[in-house]
Amino acid sequence: MSNIGKIIRVNALPSVGERENNVIYQVAAPGAATYTDYAIDENGDIKTHSGNFNPQDLVDSAVNISNQELLDEGISTQKDFNAATRERLIHKLDKPYMDGNPLEYPKVLGLDNNGNTATLPVGDLGKNIANSSLTSVAGSGLTLGSDWGVETAGHPYSISGLSDVSTNPAFHTFLSQDDSGKLGRTSGVQPFLSLPSTLSESEKAAWKTAMNGGWTTNTMSVAMVSPLVIDRTSNINTWVSLKGANLNLNPASFSVEIMNEDGDTAVDQILSSQVQLYQNGIDLVFYYNFSNLPVGKYRIRVWNGVAYYITNSNLSINSVNSVSNIDTSTLTWEVRSVPENNNTYTVGNGNIAKIMDETSQSSGSNYPVVSIKSSPFHDITDNFYIEMNVNYTIGTLVGNTLFELLPARIGLTYSDFNINSDVFNTVAYLAYKPFSGRGEANINTISPPFVAIASSDGVSSYSQKLTFIKNGNILYLIWSFNNQIYQIDIDNTRALSIIMQLPNWQYGLSNMADLTISKAYKF
């Protein structure tokens, strides 16, 4: 055991080369109340406290680096360890001790999956909230400080689970968007006003129909009004018939009004109980006592629940103190048959006429073999209304289509037509013929397709009404079979007569017809 000698008091422990041996150094900092003993033996070795070095004795030669991880990192001495530790401490963040703001402190710390760190812009915080499942709490929300947008990049964007407020009157504002995508709220006025320009014609019709309870709201039209002349002095209800298109009105939402001649003032409204509606869309009928109105011309206005329609001025109803009836009893009839004088059936008298093909020859399939024409029943430029009840009987042959047969004709022709010319000449007419075991007919044409006028084979007799209305240079023909209105332009400088013309059909098929004028007047 070393024999320690004198005690030396110093402010700092001398270095190894300057120390004395067999002494005790008492080291105390200037002004310190305590000191530390360091015993130096005869070999110059320091005798330390049991189990540990004093901090002042930690020199490189006194540290043994044995940790393999440190050695792998190139740390083999105390100096290396101290340098590595200092490097780490340099990169260590200080503990925050004050509040800041994004302008003064624009960075935050980010950590990757490997533990590496980097600074990130503080403004990026919250930018990728879309990949998070968010749940709000009471009092939370979003307040914009400037313009803000969401770019969906073509991906669906939805909001679900909202409450149904369809019946809540407090919810009356729409969410709307302009062409740039900017959102706003609206009362709905502008979207509603722009809706028609965005819908196709079929979509408009479907929308209007739905808004009208399922009843059609297609554009209404009226091609014929009957009668066009009414004797107001009779002081009775007169049935007025309108024929046109899309007149199938909603019984719960419609109106029919009497308008002045200009069509800008309603003079009376027809009670709904006086209106007969039809589903076919062609007919609308009402009755009204025109003695309630002064003499004059009146138009009809119809409302279908969505839109109004006013009849054309050419279809004005003329309320007069007397009607100029046409005396059809004075009509005379001219007959032409081929060959000469072989027809004993065809004849006319006043308002009645009849005709039949009595030829036995096979010729005459492409021209009329018998014709009958009345004298003029009106003066040139007169407007008129005339109804004729027509009956015709034709022979049929089951199993043969007979598509090549020319049809017979009943209708009107110009009065100056010469029936001795042995050609068909009709202005407005019903054309009929046999076809594949039954009858078929058409209006104002002999070209197919024709309309089958019987639902089964073997039917040969038909009864129909033809109504002709002349108004200026327009002639209307109404066929009772389908209630359709046919319109043609005519020469208003020529008078009209009634005519029936029959060809000679093959296979001995019979052909006969008759007509009775039931009503005729001028206006």
Short description:
The protein has 523 residues and is mainly beta.
What is the topological layout?
Blueprint: E1 7-10, E2 23-27, E3 36-40, E4 46-47, H1 68-72, H2 78-90, E5 107-111, E6 117-121, E7 174-177, E8 183-186, H3 189-198, H4 201-211, E9 221-226, E10 229-231, E11 238-245, E12 255-259, E13 266-269, E14 275-277, E15 283-288, E16 296-303, E17 308-310, E18 317-320, E19 324-325, E20 333-337, E21 347-349, E22 352-356, E23 368-374, E24 384-394, E25 408-414, E26 428-435, E27 438-443, E28 451-452, E29 461-471, E30 474-479, E31 484-489, E32 496-503, E33 511-522
Parallel strand pairs: 1-2, 10-18
Antiparallel strand pairs: 2-3, 3-4, 5-6, 7-8, 9-11, 11-15, 12-13, 12-16, 14-15, 16-17, 16-18, 19-33, 20-23, 21-22, 22-33, 23-32, 24-29, 24-33, 25-26, 25-32, 26-27, 27-28, 29-30, 30-31
Task: Describe the fold and architecture.
The chain is mostly beta strands. It has helices at residues 68-72, 78-90, 189-198, 201-211, and strands at residues 7-10, 23-27, 36-40, 46-47, 107-111, 117-121, 174-177, 183-186, 221-226, 229-231, 238-245, 255-259, 266-269, 275-277, 283-288, 296-303, 308-310, 317-320, 324-325, 333-337, 347-349, 352-356, 368-374, 384-394, 408-414, 428-435, 438-443, 451-452, 461-471, 474-479, 484-489, 496-503, 511-522. Strands 19, 21, 22, 24, 29, 30, 31 and 33 form an eight-stranded antiparallel beta sheet that branches. It has a seven-stranded antiparallel beta sheet with strand order 20-23-32-25-26-27-28, with no helix packed on it. Strands 10, 12, 13, 16, 17 and 18 form a six-stranded mixed beta sheet that branches. The longest helix has 13 residues, at 78-90. The mean pLDDT is 85.
